[in-house]
Amino acid sequence: MPRGREALAGLLLAGIGVLFAVGLLEIGVRWMHLVPDRFWEPDPVLGVRLTPGARGWWTQEEREFLVPVEVNHLGLRDRERDHAKPPGVFRVLLLGDSFVEAMHVPIEATIGYRLEEALNTPGGPRVEVLNAGVSGYGTASEVLFFEREGKRYAPDVVVLAFYPGNDVKNNSPTLEDNLKPVYSTDGVLQRVEGARARERARGWRGLLARSKASRYFFKTLLTRQPQLMQMLARHGWLRLDAVQRIPARDGIPVDYGVYAADATAEWSEAWRRTEQLLGRLKDAVAAQGARLAIAVVSTRDLVYPQSWQEVLATYPRMQGVTWDLEAPQRRVSAWCAVHAVPCLPLAPAFRDAAGRGGERLHYHHDGHWTAAGHRLAADVLVEFLRQQHLVP
Known about the structure:
The chain has 392 residues and is α/β, with parallel strands linked by helices. The chain is 42% helix and 15% strand. It has 3 domains: 32 residues; 299 residues, SGNH hydrolase (Rossmann fold, 3-Layer(aba) Sandwich); 36 residues, no CATH class. It contains 14 helices and 13 strands. The strands form 5 sheets. Strands 6-5-7-12-13 form a 5-stranded parallel β-sheet, sandwiched between helices. A two-stranded antiparallel ribbon has the order 1-2. A hairpin with a 5-residue loop joins β8 and β9. The protein starts with a helix and ends in a 5-residue tail after the last helix.
């Protein structure tokens, strides 16, 4: 065989081998669920929403969990429901972000599922607890969701799960980096804007964007070889804006600003908008003949002090700032007292349980509730709702 043909045949065989290896790698990453699936789609008013009927698996780099996820036909991570409330049914609507959505545990372990099980007692009326949590939502998206979708379920009680870790930031058009709220000139919330849909890449770049193996490779590279990632970006082989990064200012992650003892003008404005939105939600819920309650979600750093010490060690600039981790829940509780809204801070019960040992309540790396955390939150919330005469 002529040498030219030999070389061509060798190249062809090598190419086939590479394609075969890449194909096997892609199949392996998908089969092992090393990269989480996507369950959300853009929404012109809410910024984002769960995709009705979506199915897949949720995980993260540290593999603290691997959970099968299904979204019902209405776009809730919940049992199948209908908008119309069945006769004789008492409904509780849970609003919140990723803590309520709870991709990190099986659906049977979520706060909504456990709450429904606990509230349905022998001889009592049938109770439905609808899980309307969506990752990334702040009070702005939650208010808009209730006004457009939530009221269609005719809830008797609405429980807002307020997460101090980022809900206040989410309501600020300058602090929020992903789902930006849009306000009119007189300060009225209009909509929430999701990140701009990027033009789909073409050719091999498009294939890489759709490849889970490439996503796994680049994510691993980012966490283990950041210098190499920067070099690839400088040569145009990688777009760093396609990789999620932690927004920071002066070496301090933006999210932690909510705990600063001396709030900046920007954070004071974020709190002002947040309290206005809470008032708007209260009025919208009352207009539907329902009652509002607020549960202030526990944070990992407040429940496990060693986690906060790890944060301070990771970001040295934070060590020169005075922090007050209790401040956000105190402020929400104070607003509730003024506006006669029942309010339940969950952190005290979580701290007490963590101090007694036993199962971990927040994942160490991810920070969300474990199955034990959801169980405790549901137990405490059931008792609170009954004490406040909010449920049968």
